[in-house]
Write a sequence for this structure.
């Protein structure tokens, strides 16, 4: 069994539709420049409120990706 190292970064995604879309936006945007994405974990959900109305959903996402060689 080979040993692997993973890096974890924290992102905040936003959407005017839902928390699910906010999280998806964060992961898919990161996926445009990062390779070997592995696990995304939602650590916090919140909303932006203006004039008593929800204007945006936000999701804080911890995202891991394989660090180093791409052999495995």
């Amino acid at each position: 069994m080979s040993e692997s190292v993973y890096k974890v970064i924290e992102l905040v995604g936003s959407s005017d539709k839902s928390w699910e879309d906010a999280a998806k936006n964060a992961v898919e945007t990161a996926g445009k420049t990062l390779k070997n994405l592995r696990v995304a974990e939602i650590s916090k959900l919140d909303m932006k409120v203006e004039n008593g109305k929800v204007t945006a959903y936000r999701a804080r996402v911890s995202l891991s990706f394989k660090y180093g060689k791409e052999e495995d």
User: Anything to note?
Assistant: The first strand starts at residue 5 and ends at 15.
